[in-house]
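Why should sequence recovery work at all? Because a backbone constrains its sequence more than one might expect. Tight turns favour small or flexible residues, buried strands favour hydrophobic ones, and helices have their own preferences. The token representation captures these environments compactly. In the example below, the structure is given first.
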């Protein structure tokens, strides 16, 4: 993949991840956000803290982001007892039945952000 395409994907992933909690007004939703059972079992206050940490995440070491797409992160959260992982996957549409042929093209990509405990990976 070209560096330019990776930069486009990273910019779209960053925009999606930082705005996933903002209501859409007359805009086409670009994806969904899901939490695993482990995250859902945490207190509502902790879940909100985790969502905000994911939205504000900026640490993309090469080992976690080898392609420069900003599609994965690991967070240490006080009070959880293990790392929190988040991952963005690319699908062709909302049905999530097939992968996107070109994740750099927002018209052909529906993103799914999953937030999970590391033990649920």
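From this structural description, the recovered sequence reads:
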């Amino acid at each position: 993949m070209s560096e330019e395409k990776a930069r486009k994907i990273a910019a779209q992933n960053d925009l999606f991840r930082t705005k996933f909690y903002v209501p859409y007004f007359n805009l086409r939703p670009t994806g969904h956000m899901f939490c695993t059972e482990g995250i859902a079992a945490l207190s509502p206050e902790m879940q909100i803290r985790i969502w905000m940490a994911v939205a504000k995440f900026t640490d993309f070491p090469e080992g976690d982001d080898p392609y420069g797409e900003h599609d994965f992160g690991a967070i240490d959260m006080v009070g959880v007892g293990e790392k929190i992982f988040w991952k963005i996957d690319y699908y062709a549409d909302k049905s999530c039945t097939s992968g996107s042929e070109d994740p750099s093209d927002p018209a052909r990509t529906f993103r799914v952000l999953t937030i999970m405990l590391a033990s649920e990976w």
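A few observations help interpret the result. The chain has one domain: 3-20+29-120.
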